[in-house]
UniProtKB/TrEMBL annotation:
Signal peptide: none annotated. It comes from the Bacteria. Residues 51-193 form the DUF305 domain. This is DUF305 domain-containing protein. Gene3D superfamilies: 1.20.1260.10. It holds the Pfam family DUF305.
């Protein structure tokens, strides 16, 4: 059973499409993974289309992550799952505020439209229906569902960040993408460890 769940988590890491990203040997960041990282400086006015798409996709992504984290804070039974939900909620709220301010500075809308995720192979792993369905679970079943979904969700963030690092031009957006890669990979590693210990 554990192997099946871990396999599902690894498969879920493909997120919006592409290869699953599971870091080797990257353990928990101790309490660092459960506290918000310092904010990235306000973005400069220099940007390209890749920066805009990254910011818009991350706004959509972060809002869904916050929604799922809120459900987990109310329903998770494992302390590790609840702690991760709290860390993700705090960090992603801060990032949402930052990205929205960048898009406003650049004169771009927060919503990139219905085809925003097409470049990454389709719609994101999470949506309102998936989150609603997860609310119906309880106990260990909820914990596993949350950890699997959030691991895949954070894997999708790593994918988007890698694309930004490759194609973006805004230095602050690229620095944020680096931060996303590091933090999310640490969280994925933590979540897979909690799943394997079930």
């Amino acid at each position: 059973m554990k192997r099946l769940v871990i396999a599902l988590a690894v498969l879920a890491l493909a997120g919006c499409g592409g290869e699953a990203i599971v870091p080797e040997g990257q353990g928990a960041h101790g309490h660092g993974a459960s506290s918000a990282a310092p904010p990235v400086p306000a973005a400069s006015a220099r940007f390209n289309d890749a920066d805009v798409v990254f910011a818009q996709m991350m706004v959509d992504h972060l809002q869904l992550g916050v929604s799922l984290s809120q459900v987990a804070l109310a329903k998770a039974t494992k302390k590790e799952a609840k702690d991760l939900a709290g860390a993700i909620d705090a960090t992603q709220r801060e990032e949402l505020s930052m990205l929205k301010s960048w898009l406003k500075l650049w004169g771009k809308p927060e919503d990139g439209g219905k085809d925003l995720h097409a470049a990454h192979g389709g719609q994101p792993l999470l949506d309102d229906k998936v989150i609603s369905d997860t609310k119906d679970k309880s106990g260990a079943e909820f914990d596993l569902a949350f950890l699997n979904l959030m691991a895949g969700h954070q894997g999708a963030a790593v994918e988007m960040a890698l694309a930004e690092k490759k194609d973006g031009s805004n230095p602050e957006a690229i620095a944020y993408a680096e931060r996303v890669t590091t933090i999310r990979q640490g969280q994925i590693s933590q979540m897979l460890k909690v799943i394997s210990d079930q």
